[in-house]
Amino acid sequence: MTDFRARYQFRKELHKGLDQLSTRDKGPFANRGEAEPFTRAAVEEIQHLQYKLFTEGKQSLLIVLQAPDAAGKDGVIRHVLGRMNPQGCRTYPFKVPSTIEAAHDFLWRIHACTPAAGMVSIFNRSHYEDVLVVRVEGLVPEPVWQKRYEHINAFESLLRDRGTRIIKFYLHISPREQLKRFGERLKEPEKHWKLAKSDYSARKQWGAYQEAYLEAFSRCSSDEAPWYVIPADRKWHRNAAVAGILLETLREMDPQLPDPSEDPELIRQLYAEAKAEQNDGATDE
To answer: Cα-flanking dihedrals φ and ψ of residue 203, to 5°?
Structure first.
């Protein structure tokens, strides 16, 4: 399997601008027909490893999704991340802060959603909105959001010290592909709930958002809490790359099933006795 982590991990010494990174990379695949079987197989193994993570109850995993509108955060959750057992996995979509949330520090609402031991948390948008939207839209003064990179790094360091692995995905879509998907939404009534005027005002500030993303990645990506820039114009590649990185991460975490709390041989004997008693008491109707 291709090392998707090495291929797409953001490194500030190499990546001087997001416009230099392809949005249409196919990775190791020639076409969709090659990518989709890989994704299905990867998701199946992810399900198995997540079950072991849950039963082990020692480690946890935080998955962060950020992207321009229509890049496919919901699609990644539906086709890849959402296939994990919901008993051990939660998804948190972060919207505009409520009045109560806004009255606290910007990480207050985030910390409550981080994963407990054995759990996986998926952030659909995240604490990074507070150095992206607030920066571009001028919602807080620059001295305020400038300090937040340091707060974010300290916050993620705290999570790692507790045993939480962190992987962060940026779905890298082109303005052309985004507009195409906006048009597709207009044609599908079941997607009209996603329509928003703000999508078009954000397009007018595409360059400013790209600069904000680049600074966030440059200041808050490390081998311990990496950002991955995933080419997202091709949905089948996007899903395969995210699945590949998640699978590589879980394999490295190597969760183990816990040892039995009871002697299996004793339980086997009790089962045999119960089975014999049931057969002895059976009557023909």
So the answer is: -60, -35
pLDDT reading at 139 higher than 60: yes
Is 285 part of any domain?
Answer: no
pTM of the model: 0.94
Is pLDDT of 103 > 90? Answer: yes
Q: Is residue 226 part of a domain?
A: yes
Domain-embedded: residue 145? yes
Count of the separate structural domains present in the chain: 1
Q: Strand 227-231 relative to strand 120-124: parallel, antiparallel, unpaired?
A: unpaired
Residue type at position 183:
G
Phi, psi of 170 (to 5 degrees): -110, 120
What is the torsion angle, in degrees rounded to the nearest 10, for the CA atoms of residue 3, residue 38, residue 76 and residue 249?
-40
Residue 93 placed within a domain = yes
Report d(CA 35, CA 32) in Å as an integer. Answer: 5
Q: Does residue 283 carry a pLDDT above 90?
A: no
Amino acid in position 205: Q
pLDDT at 249 over 70: yes
CA separation for the pair 11, 218 (Å, rounded) = 7
